[in-house]
Structure formats: structure tokens, C-alpha cells
Specification:
The chain is an alpha+beta fold. 41% of the residues lie in helices and 22% in strands. The strands form two sheets. The chain has a five-stranded mixed sheet with strand order 3-2-1-5-8. The structure holds copper (II) ion.
Length: 274
């Protein structure tokens, strides 16, 4: 039985450890691809998990202890103890200390995410019902990113996560993401980068990440936004500097904002003429 369990764990581990997307039967986080996410994983694995385990084991021990020690058959006369100052001080101080110990690394991670370093690339992500729109404000690029339906998926494209137009960013560069929405609340979330921010109509939220390896990374809208909430994935390709420059050149032609605006104006004028 034990051997079987170990086998199952090992058969799951390698694939889930190297995943940039969620995997069946996955336990724990996706593999980190930024310092921010590595800090989060460290905080979870080496601080929260041990504390949770210790508290759970301690409470279980106390429960079992009182069940045996104070069972009715051995305690015909009930104790009249109503308080004990030493114990009360201990059970107030120790949880306080645990919270303080947890707060230090927790705030460190929180503030490191909040303070945006000088950005090398800026992206604007706009949540729509139900797809994401992206803009590269410095590059005159704008495009929409729709999920690929099951029937149109190519080989090795993950279901519910693949999009038609992917976001491209260079590796080892600070990417600032400005996040907003056009209709209802959405949330732009990418687990491997440790990024999750609400997309609020009429307001811009900012976050950042610095991917430390290349690859295709998947995320999803993480705020219930209506019937197709589950069908507006986020795909980010982290590529080398040269590949990014090549993509920029193509994208500036394919997704040029000004020509798109012009087309929209023409459509608008035609509507007005009618
Ligand atoms: Cu959404």
C-alpha cells in the first residue's frame, strides 16, 4: 500500500513540478517563474505549512489528552476551576508571537509586489465579457485575445487555456501590467508569476512581474464575471530579447492601434450617415 502511494506521488510530481499550467491531480503551486512567486512559494512551504501542521497536531494532542485524562468514569466529581492566569497569558502571547513571525515575510512579499520597479515593458490588460484586450501603449499595439474552442485546438494546446492572440514579453525584464475592465469586475491572474489583480471598470490597477525563464504561461480570469467567466484565459509567452523584437515588428503591423482606430472611425461615420 505504502509503495503504491509513493509511486503515485512520484508519477504526479515531475509533470506538475515543471508545469506552467494547472495539471490533473495537482497538489500545491505551479512552478514559479519569477522572484515574486518564489518568495510566495517559500513563505507557504517553509512558514505557513509548518505552522499549520504544528498547530493542528498540538490541538489534536490536546483533544485526545482531555478525552482520556478527564473522561467521565475517572472524574465523578467535576472540577470547579474557572481560570488560570498563567495559561491565559500563554495562550494570548504565543498566538501573538506566531502572528508577528508570520507578518514579517508576508509584508515583505506584499510590498515587493506593490512597489513597481522601473518598467522595461508596459502592458495594459482590459477585461471584457468575456475575453481580454491588450495594449502596448509605448508600441502602438492593440489586440484582443479570445479563447480557442475545443474543436479548433491543435496538438499540445491545453483546453480552456489557449488563446488566439498571445501576449509576448521579454525574459528577465520588468513588465508593468496596467489592469482595468470595460464592463464588470474581472481579475488578471498568472500563477507562475505570482500575479493577481482585480480589473475594475473606471479604474486602473497596476502590478508587475519579471519572468526568469522562457516558456508559455497560462492564467485565467479570477473574478466571477458572468456566464463565460471560465472561458477568458490569459496566455503569456516569455521569449528572448531578440524574439521579442521580432514579434514587436510583426505586431506593430498586424495590431497597429492607429489603423484600427481609423477603421473604427470609418465604421462609426458610416453608421452616423445611415
Ligand atoms: Cu472575467
Amino acid at each position: 500500500m505504502f509503495k503504491k502511494i509513493v509511486l503515485i506521488i512520484f508519477s504526479i510530481m515531475p509533470s506538475s513540478l515543471l508545469a506552467n499550467e494547472p495539471k490533473d491531480w495537482q497538489l500545491g503551486f505551479q512552478e514559479s517563474a519569477s522572484k515574486s512567486m518564489s518568495d510566495i512559494v517559500w513563505f507557504h512551504d517553509y512558514m505557513l505549512l509548518p505552522i499549520i501542521t504544528a498547530i493542528t497536531a498540538f490541538v489534536l494532542f490536546l483533544l485526545l489528552y482531555v478525552c482520556v485524562r478527564f473522561r467521565a468514569s475517572k472524574n465523578q466529581v467535576a472540577s470547579t476551576t474557572s481560570h488560570n492566569t498563567v495559561i491565559e497569558v500563554i495562550w494570548t502571547l504565543i498566538p501573538c508571537l506566531i502572528l508577528i513571525v508570520m507578518a514579517v515575510p508576508s509584508f515583505k512579499v506584499l510590498y515587493s509586489q506593490d512597489e513597481i520597479p522601473k518598467a522595461d515593458v508596459t502592458i495594459k490588460a482590459v477585461g471584457y465579457q468575456w475575453y481580454w484586450g491588450y495594449e502596448y501603449p509605448d508600441e502602438n499595439i492593440i489586440f484582443d485575445s479570445y479563447m480557442i474552442e475545443d474543436k479548433d485546438l491543435k496538438e499540445n494546446q491545453p483546453r480552456l487555456l489557449t488563446v488566439d492572440n498571445e501576449v509576448y514579453v521579454p525574459v528577465n525584464k520588468v513588465v508593468k501590467v496596467m489592469i482595468t475592465a470595460n464592463d464588470v469586475l474581472h481579475a488578471w491572474a498568472l500563477p507562475s508569476f505570482g500575479v493577481k489583480r482585480d480589473a475594475v471598470p473606471g479604474r486602473i490597477n497596476e502590478t508587475w512581474f519579471k519572468a526568469d525563464r522562457t516558456g508559455t504561461f497560462y492564467g485565467q480570469c479570477s473574478e466571477l464575471c458572468g456566464i463565460k467567466h471560465a472561458f477568458m484565459p490569459i496566455t503569456v509567452n516569455v521569449v528572448t530579447e531578440d524574439e521579442y523584437k521580432k514579434w514587436l515588428e510583426e505586431a506593430k503591423v498586424k495590431f497597429a492601434k492607429e489603423t484600427i482606430d481609423k477603421k473604427m472611425r470609418i465604421v462609426k461615420n458610416m453608421r452616423e450617415l445611415k
